[in-house]
């Protein structure tokens, strides 16, 4: 999932704001941040208050897990 260059995003958006705007729940967004799966312009971010104003690109990195 990627959110980027969206003109509907508030100018003072945080990474959490952007993740919530993408449609995931706050609990899930915070879990992704804590897990280290969120990148803003390619940099790993764990702080939900980290600035993510447009035109920054917010990504969730997929982490493949092996079946046990």
Number of domains: 1
Based on secondary structure, the structural category is alpha+beta
Tell me, what is the CATH class?
Alpha Beta
Q: What Rg do the Cα atoms give?
A: 12 Å
CATH topology: Structural Genomics Hypothetical 15.5 Kd Protein In mrcA-pckA Intergenic Region, Chain A
Order of helices and strands: EHHEEE
Average pLDDT taken over every residue: 86
Number of helices: 2
Order of strands, widest sheet = 1-4-2-3
CATH superfamily: RNA-binding S4 domain
CATH architecture label name:
Roll
Assembly context of the chains: single chain
Shape: globular
Distance between the termini: 26 Å
Strand fraction band? 15-25%
Number of strands: 4
* Unreliable runs: none
Largest sheet: 4 strands, antiparallel
Helix content: 10-25%
Main features:
single chain, 68 residues, alpha+beta, Structural Genomics Hypothetical 15.5 Kd Protein In mrcA-pckA Intergenic Region, Chain A, 4-stranded antiparallel sheet, 24% helix, globular
Description:
With 68 residues, the chain is of the alpha+beta class. It has a single domain (2-60), classed as Structural Genomics Hypothetical 15.5 Kd Protein In mrcA-pckA Intergenic Region, Chain A (Roll). 24% of the residues lie in helices and 18% in strands. The chain has 2 helices and 4 strands. It starts with a strand and ends in an 8-residue tail after the last strand. The model has no long low-confidence stretch (mean pLDDT 86).
Q: In terms of topology, how is this protein built?
A:
Elements: E1 2-4, H1 15-21, H2 26-34, E2 38-40, E3 43-44, E4 57-60
Antiparallel strand pairs: 1-4, 2-3, 2-4
